Amino acid sequence: MNFKIEEMIELLERTPETLKQLLSGLSDGWVLSNEGEGTWNALEVVGHLIEAEKVNWIPRVKMILTKGESETFPDFDRFAHLQQIQGKTMDDLLNEFKQVRNESLTDLKTLITIHTDYELKGTHPVYGSVKLSELLSTWAVHDLTHITQITRVMAKRYRGDVGSWINYLSILK
Q: InterPro entries this protein is in (predicted)?
């Protein structure tokens, strides 16, 4: 098993600044482009990360630590953020994400001790029994997945403009 709480936290701590450096101050062409109907743009992805931060990660950690498998995690509405981001700018969302992520990490550092058993389990509404280590690993990989998604969507904006170099740009395939 590769999971180490310290490494997971160091990655999660960097995501808000990574996104700020990538997205802050960019024109709407970059942050509002998507891959077609039913796909998300960068603004929507950041909104999704905020929603997950508020209702998914720490609440589920707390459930595992306090209730174990006796109660099922509440469903996570992966689209709830679409209403909540209306009228917000990318900079608004990046600032909010930084704030809620800092709060989550503060909570996590309070909840997790050197005695925490990462094999403790909770009950996911779809996957059934899941370990605390799996939830925490998923949180880190979720960040990386959406960073990749954002860069892929942005790159595809220029897909038709790169000419023959498309053969060397795996992100466009």
A: DinB-like (IPR024775), DinB/YfiT-like (IPR034660)
Domain positions in the chain: 5-172
Cα separation, 47 vs 9, whole angstroms: 21
- pLDDT tens for each residue of the chain, 173 residues long: 799 999 999 999 999 999 999 999 999 999 999 999 999 999 999 999 999 999 999 999 999 999 999 999 999 888 888 788 889 999 999 999 999 999 999 999 999 998 999 999 999 999 999 999 999 999 999 999 999 999 999 999 999 999 999 999 999 98
Q: Quick one: which H or E segment has residue 130?
A: strand 128-131
